[in-house]
Amino acid sequence: xxxxxxxxxxxxxxxxxxxxxxxxxxxxxxxxxxxxxxxxxxxxxxxxxxxxxxxxxxxxxxxxxxxxxxxxxx
Length: 74
Known about the structure:
This protein is an all-alpha fold. It has a domain at 28-74. Helix content is 69%, strand content 0%. The chain starts with a helix and ends in a 5-residue tail after the last helix.
């Protein structure tokens, strides 16, 4: 499995919700919290552990960028 696919699966694997209004906002916030938790877990790993799961530090940066933007995606 390539690193790109692995980070996509880790970053925002939850399906996008079609809810609107306040419910949609809460669901987007939940997705953002999940993506943020994934990014934090990856940041806490050392380079050897990341290598074991076929990721690099740049992959972690991409996941973190995605987590920062996830709240605003529709």
